[in-house]
């Protein structure tokens, strides 16, 4: 039996770590790419216990370099490429729109060009996003819903998405796109709202923080569990034909709802009072304010409501999410309580 070889760009990120764990469990040889920085951080693959797996090879690589992309494909002989690398934080994309375009948009094109030049039989997965729907044109969003991105990140991802479709149609490359709605986990970066909330709730519970500051509490998101979603990525590349698939839970909740759920998970009941910038959440047992709104976390343009239909993925790939939002939130709160108790938290 020949061993399958895959490249995962962005191994230091949330999805890269979970996907590597999945592919290793399926017997793949995995090349995981990381960027050269003054202090590379492998805490996620270490937390999953896969950092010393002999089938996981770590390769230095930057998505913005076409020649590096070509050499990456030549030197590894991979037959599947999962392009997860990106400047993925929507808020930062307003401050660094050009960097975001170069990494998140043109970076994907570098890989597609490298595939075209080195081995057009490579299967390519593009990490597309519900942020491409932005100002939503239909509820729920499906593969046929028109796009209307609301951030430089969303626009850059839409470019990469259409390039994937274009390389499929122009050159017959097996380029598939997963339009994934928000997916979270204990490995989520702390700049994203769910993990910011669960980490802060843990610190408040342990007396290490008084109050959590957030931006827009009304934003509604369709939140799933990252480990369920990387299984969907793999299925997308095992399909008979390249295609585009939405992965989502078909349930939407506000940021405010997630805050209440996280405090409940830590045994604290909260009540929201006031409106707009004056809204706060109060611990009903102590009367203390534990959440405030800080407008510095507002975005110049917001995505108000996301809810996706995974019907096509279910019908064609047999994929559906397995983890409820309550289970996901509890898992994240418990992981952050443990880390903050042990005095270690990334
Ligand atoms: P993360 O932000 O956790 O990880 C992004 C990864 O990309 C990191 O490993 C990062 O490396 C790497 N990276 C950034 N810039 C470059 C570069 N120039 N060259 C090479 N690597 C780079 O994202 P997630 O794991 O959450 O998401 C994975 C992908 O899926 C991303 O493309 C994201 O945009 C997309 N996506 C995510 C969703 C989600 O809800 N999580 C939903 C839909 C799409 P470093 O550690 O050095 O910064
Ligand atoms: P998002 O995720 O922008 O949907 O992108 P994020 O968790 O950053 O924001 C979700 C919503 O919460 C609101 N919000 C806050 N967000 C952050 N980060 N910090 C806050 O303090 C805060 N307060 C309120 C935001 O305004 C927003 O409405 C994520 C990323 O993983 C993308 O890469 C991915 O493509 C999409 O999910 C799907």
TrEMBL record:
Q: Does the keyword section mention Lyase?
A: yes
- What is the superkingdom listed in this entry's lineage? Bacteria
Among HAMAP family, the record links this protein to: GDP_Man_dehydratase
One Gene Ontology molecular-function label: NADP+ binding
Q: Which GO terms describe its biological process?
A: 'de novo' GDP-L-fucose biosynthetic process
Corresponding gene?
gmd
- For this UniProt record, give its keywords in alphabetical order, as a comma-separated list: Lyase, NADP
Question: What protein name is recorded for this chain?
Answer: GDP-mannose 4,6-dehydratase
Catalytic activity field: GDP-alpha-D-mannose = GDP-4-dehydro-alpha-D-rhamnose + H2O
The UniProt record lists the keyword Iron-sulfur: no
Q: What does this protein do?
A: Catalyzes the conversion of GDP-D-mannose to GDP-4-dehydro-6-deoxy-D-mannose.
**Family indicated by similarity:** Belongs to the NAD(P)-dependent epimerase/dehydratase family. GDP-mannose 4,6-dehydratase subfamily.
**What CDD domains does its record include?**
GDP_MD_SDR_e
Names of the cofactor(s): NADP(+)
Write out the residues that bind NADP(+): 124
Pfam families on file: GDP_Man_Dehyd (PF16363)
């Amino acid at each position: 039996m020949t061993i399958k070889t895959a490249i995962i760009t962005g191994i230091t990120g949330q999805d890269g770590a979970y996907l590597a764990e999945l592919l290793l469990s399926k017997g793949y040889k995995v090349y995981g790419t990381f960027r050269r920085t003054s202090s590379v951080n492998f805490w996620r693959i270490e937390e999953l216990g896969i950092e010393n797996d002999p089938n996981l090879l770590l390769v230095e690589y930057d998505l913005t370099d076409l020649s590096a992309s070509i050499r990456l494909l030549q030197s590894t002989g991979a037959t599947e490429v999962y392009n997860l690398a990106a400047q993925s934080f929507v808020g930062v994309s307003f401050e660094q729109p050009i960097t975001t375009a170069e990494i998140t948009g043109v970076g994907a094109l570098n890989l597609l060009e490298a595939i075209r030049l080195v081995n057009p039989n490579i299967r390519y997965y593009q990490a597309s996003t519900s942020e491409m729907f932005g100002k939503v044109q239909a509820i729920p969003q499906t593969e046929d819903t028109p796009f209307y991105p609301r951030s430089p990140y969303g626009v850059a991802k839409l470019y990469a998405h259409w390039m994937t479709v274009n390389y499929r149609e122009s050159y017959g490359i097996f380029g598939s796109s997963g339009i994934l709605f928000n997916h979270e986990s204990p490995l989520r970066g702390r700049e994203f709202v769910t993990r910011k909330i669960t980490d802060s709730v843990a610190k408040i519970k342990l007396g290490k923080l008084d109050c959590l500051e957030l931006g827009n509490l009304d934003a509604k998101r369709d939140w799933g569990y990252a480990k369920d979603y990387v299984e969907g990525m793999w299925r997308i590349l095992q399909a008979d034909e390249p295609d585009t698939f939405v992965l989502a839970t078909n349930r939407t909740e506000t940021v405010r709802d997630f805050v209440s759920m996280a405090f409940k998970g830590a045994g604290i009941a909260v009540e929201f009072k006031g409106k707009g910038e004056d809204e706060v959440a109060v611990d009903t047992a102590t009367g203390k304010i534990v959440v405030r709104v800080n407008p510095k976390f507002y975005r110049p343009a917001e995505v108000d409501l996301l809810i996706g239909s995974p019907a096509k993925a279910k019908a064609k790939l047999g994929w559906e999410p397995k983890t409820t939002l309550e289970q996901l939130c509890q898992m994240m709160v418990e992981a952050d309580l443990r880390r903050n108790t042990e005095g270690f938290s990334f």
